Amino acid sequence: MKLQHILLEVEQEAAVDALEQAMADSFKQLGQELETNKQDIQANVQAANVKVAEAVGIVTVVGALLAAPKVIELLAKGMQKLFSTYKKLFKRDAAKGEQEQLQVAKTLIEFSHKWHKLYPKGIKWILSASGLFKKAGINSEQDQMKAAELIYYTILAGLAVYSGVGAVSAFKSAAASADLGGFSLGSFETAMSTIKSGEVAAFLSKINIK
Predict the structure, then answer these.
(1) What is the pLDDT of residue 6?
(2) Count of structural domains, the chain
(3) For a pLDDT cut of 90, what percent of the chain falls above it?
(4) CB 3.0–4.6 Å: which of 24, 68, 111, 129 could bond 19 by disulfide?
(5) Class of residue 177 by CB neighbours under 10 A (exposed 0-12, middle 13-18, buried 19+)
């Protein structure tokens, strides 16, 4: 194995460890922020003009979030540690070459191993506790989980695009040499396809990814 490849693997391991710790810190912070500001958040959701969802898609879910600024504020504050850590590891648009994009993809895939079940469940809990699911008419357990997973993969897609990975092809290449560990290429591709839509771009901007 070439020295360059060894160094890249060491760097990737360190990045994954840092992101996993940052996610753990963010997860804790999200819970604290929700408990501290729960009444204000619920009141804000109740006053929001949220359209009732006819079908659960990313634009529908993001639209509901954008109508409830206190929930957006909660996500931005709660995820601050993760986003700031990611931005230290991967500067904006820094992944210009194929190898750099592959490294970003592998890091996000490896990092998501620990969180691909826990974090969507956390998002589901937040959207339920805030009253946003009820307000948007997203009532079934299945639809709520789908909505939470859409937000999760949209956040991952936002991080990828921030660092310069503009297409899902880097993740497909990474999948050939990385353990997916529950990472859904299909869900990620769906998120990537919506990343430039007005609602999704506004959501990512408001939670300080873009």
Answers:
(1) 29
(2) 1
(3) 49
(4) 111
(5) exposed
pLDDT of amino acid 3: 32
Residue 56: CB atoms within 10 Å: 18
- What lies within 8 Å, CB to CB, of 88 at 6+ separation is none
Which of 38-47, 106-115, 151-160 shows the lowest mean pLDDT across its residues? 106-115
Q: Which 3-state string (H, E, C) describes the chain?
A: CCHHHHHHHHHHHHHHHHHHHHHHHHHHHHHHHHHHHHHHHHHHHHHCCCCCCCCCCHHHHHHHHHCCHHHHHHHHHHCHHHHHHHHHHCCCCCCCCHHHHHHHHHHHHHHHCCCCCHHHHHHHHHHHHCCHHHHHCCCCHHHHHHHHHHHHHHHHHHHHHHHCCCCCHHHHHHHCCCCCCCCCHHHHHHHHHHCCCHHHHHHHHHCCCC
Q: Give tens-digit pLDDT for 128-160.
A: 999 999 999 999 999 999 999 999 999 999 999
Residue 10 tokens read as 């060491």
Report the distance separating Cα 143 and Cα 57, nearest Å: 10
Task: Please state, in angstroms and rounded to a whole number, the distance separating the CA atoms of residues 88 and 18.
Answer: 10
Residue 200 near residue 62, CB atoms below 8 Å: yes
9 confidence band (pLDDT: 50, 70, 90): low
The pTM for the full model equals 0.89
Domain with 174 in it? 3-206
